[in-house]
Amino acid sequence: TSREDVEFYTSLEGYLRVEAPRPTGRDPQAYRSYYAPTKHIIDGDLCDAYAQLPYETKQKIAEQLDRSVGEVMKKLEDTKNALL
């Protein structure tokens, strides 16, 4: 359901804010809300960064989401394909 999707992506984004390296060195939330506050918005670019993480980091995040790495990757791909 869409509520489960929102909860999944919100959790994934939260874990990625902590675990994912930042190319600019800035906090993703601060960067995205520089001009206007962002509320109830999921950062798709940040979620997409999951695919570029080392496997150990992917596994750590997937365990926190109670899923396997494959399930997380499939969810990301399915959502991306549904939107294109």
Features of the shown structure:
84 residues, 5 helices, mainly alpha
Describe the protein.
The chain is mainly alpha-helical and 84 residues long. 63% of the residues lie in helices and 0% in strands. The longest helix has 18 residues, at 2-19.
End-to-end separation in angstroms reads 19 Å
Helix content: 55-70%
What does the largest sheet look like? none
Can you tell me the residue ranges where pLDDT is under 50 for at least 5 consecutive residues? none
Gyration radius over CA: 13 Å
Overall mean pLDDT: 83
Order of helices and strands: HHHHH
Q: Given the helix and strand composition, which structural class is it?
A: mainly alpha
Q: Report the count of strand segments.
A: 0
Number of helices: 5
Overall 3D shape: globular
Strand content: under 5%
Which helices and strands occur, and which strands form pairs?
Elements: H1 2-19, H2 28-32, H3 44-48, H4 55-64, H5 69-83
Short account of what is shown:
With 84 residues, this protein is an all-alpha fold. The protein has helices spanning 2-19, 28-32, 44-48, 55-64, 69-83.
